[in-house]
């Protein structure tokens, strides 16, 4: 049995979706965030010192980080190689998008979220000054990078159905959540291929089954 340690409002949907696609038996262990610090409870830190989610326990193996988990599950259980290209450009694209999701894109979306949360918690008298500064930083630093990434992703998806070619792969399990978060923090109406891709994903039975286990 594989155990998925899921901290609320984390990125564990990627892992549960892949487990559904692989048709593996698993159990989701739910954790609530600390309402003051928004961090992980000590019970999750007992599983892994950093208390990060998603995390899986498979027998004696405890694995953290979305990309590492996706690679482990595909390498270990995808015996038919449905979700990993064998070679060539598709394999290179698979590796690139699997790592670019967190390495290049997610940090800017998280930074934008931090700015938004910071503005919301500012004392009323400080909002005009510091809130204006945070808005300006978003416009100067974050928005240009997010827009560049979204254009690049949209152009990529104009050429193929999935991130690594014409077949669903681990890169899609990793990247779709990035686009979901971007949709919450940016206007995606100018990116028709991203919108088409999102509709394609949510129609998958495995994705819908994952949503029944944990929220997006």
Automatic annotation (TrEMBL):
The keyword Transferase applies. The keyword Transferase applies. Gene3D superfamilies: 1.20.1050.10, Glutaredoxin. InterPro entries: Glutathione-S-Trfase_C-like (IPR010987), Glutathione-S-Trfase_C_sf (IPR036282), Glutathione_S-Trfase (IPR040079), Glutathione_S-Trfase_N (IPR004045), GST_C (IPR004046), Thioredoxin-like_sf (IPR036249). It is an enzyme of class 2 (transferase). SUPFAM superfamilies: GST C-terminal domain-like, Thioredoxin-like. Its EC number is 2.5.1.18. Residues 1-81 form the GST N-terminal domain. GO terms for cellular component: cytoplasm. Keywords: Transferase. Signal peptide: none annotated. Pfam families: GST_C_3 (PF14497), GST_N (PF02798). The lineage of its organism: Bacteria, Pseudomonadati, Pseudomonadota, Gammaproteobacteria, Vibrionales. This is glutathione transferase. One of its GO terms (molecular function) is peroxidase activity.
